[in-house]
Amino acid sequence: MTKPRKISLILFMGALAACVVVLLFARWRPLDTRPDSAYLALLREAYAAVIKNHVEKPDSKKMLQSMVDGMLATLDPHSAYLPPEPLHEMEVQMSGAFGGVGIELGVKDDKLTVIAPIEDTPAFRAGIQSDDHIWKIDNSLTRGMNITAAVKLMRGEKGKPVTLTIVRNGSPKPLVFRLIRDIIKIKSLKARMLEKGYGYIRISQFQERTGSEFKQALADLHAAAGGSLQGLVIDLRFNPGGLLESSVAVANCFIGDDINNTVIVSIKGRGAHNSRVFNATLGEKEPRYPMVVLINGGSASAAEIVAGALQDHKRAIVMGRQSFGKGSVQSLIPLKDGGALKLTTARYYTPSGRSIQARGIVPDVDVPNITPLPATETGKEFKEKDLERSLASDGLQEPPPAKVPDAPAPHGATAGDADLRKDYQLRRALELLQSIAMLKEKGF
């Protein structure tokens, strides 16, 4: 074979090999490259086929709402479609009064699960616990039921009963709770003196009026202390969260005395319209007396914002157990039907840039719960990261918690206060504040 013919043959074989590669690539590339408009057309085609051919006439409105519910169910556990009635109920709840039993709900392992009962409600008094699986609401099985539908079944007129069948870890058989619905007047906060000079504010949920109520509580405590507090405990245990703006208002009472260090929380989403920095307002702030913030596995969302802000600004010592880890922001997007999309639009970050999502706030001083939170099958407390489709964390790593061994309750120091005698974490918080005061007196 002559040299020119060899070169021609080599070129021909190379071209043939290239064609084979192109054909193989074309054959094995992803087959479904249709645009979104094609999927919308597919949805309309499927809907029309069902309406025309199903053996029984379908409820078209129910089908369409289920389409929206299914779309949002693929995102995360906190995004949901709120029809007009549930939307109104949620707005009523944030205002501080609604008819129902008082349960914060989540979905775990495809099961309707109690995140926490709201304090001083029928569910709380009946003994319903965090991590309880709600198996039935009256006669309706909850398998596959979304949170919005479950809330609708449990809400209702005051005095009307509702029966919840609960599956609880450690119980040999389901537990049945017959609850009488009540007007759930969520008390945003309670305040009192622990001992002379030492105040206590428990915030159960962040509602519309929490900011103003908190300022009034501080004023009352100062008056009760004779004009000046020596220390303050802010109790955020089992606080499921609430309104972001109210948590900012609470933290604003203590942050902003330094003009160069005013960030309370920042939220970051896709695009500038879903991102924002919340700064403290300048002006008169609370004196810099010692503070302890109590948290546990039931402290979530807005409660974590307050704890994280005060911790990052070194304005308070955070004590208790690692918090729930719900670090996402839900925005209400109004729809033409009078309802709204409750859509997760951002993650929030503490002033130092920590993301709380799926991590929670790690306390400065780790103190065991008086009554440990129910454990999951893995032996861990029920957290945001255990929820179905929970968003992944993002941001800087948390430092490891400072572990302390369980200790017996001390005797004598708090004999005059029944709550202090039975509440180990609260007693430890007061003792820490008193120790700080003693060190100051000694000149340390």
How would you characterize the overall build of this protein?
The protein is of the alpha+beta class and 444 residues long. The chain folds into two domains: 97-185, Roll (Pdz3 Domain); 189-330 and 345-441, 2-enoyl-CoA Hydratase, Chain A, domain 1. Helices cover 32% and strands 23% of the residues. The chain is built from eleven helices and 19 strands. Strands 10-11-12-15-16-19 form a six-stranded mixed β-sheet, sandwiched between helices. Strands 1, 13, 14, 17 and 18 form a five-stranded antiparallel β-sheet that branches. Helix 7 (210-224) packs parallel to helix 8 and helix 8 packs parallel to helix 9. The longest helix has 26 residues, at 3-28. It is globular. It starts with a helix and ends with a helix. Residues 16-29, 372-379 and 397-416 have low confidence and may be disordered.
Helical segment count: 11
User: Could you tell me how far the N terminus lies from the C terminus, measured between alpha carbons in angstroms?
Assistant: 99 Å
* Structural class by SSE content: alpha+beta
Give the total of beta strands: 19
For the record, the CATH class of the largest domain is Alpha Beta
Low-confidence stretches: 16-29, 372-379, 397-416
**Order of strands in the sheet with most strands:** 10-11-12-15-16-19
Helix content: 25-40%
Please provide the ordered H/E string of secondary-structure elements.
HHHEHEEEHEEHEEEEEHEHEEEHEEEEHH
Share in β-strands? 15-25%
Total tally of structural domains: 2
Can you identify the CATH superfamily of the largest domain?
Answer: 2-enoyl-CoA Hydratase, Chain A, domain 1
Which geometry do the CA atoms define? Answer: globular
* Radius of gyration, in angstroms, nearest whole number: 28 Å
Largest sheet: 6 strands, mixed
Mean pLDDT comes to 84
> In CATH terms, what is the fold-level topology of the largest domain?
2-enoyl-CoA Hydratase, Chain A, domain 1
CATH architecture assignment name of the largest domain: Alpha-Beta Complex
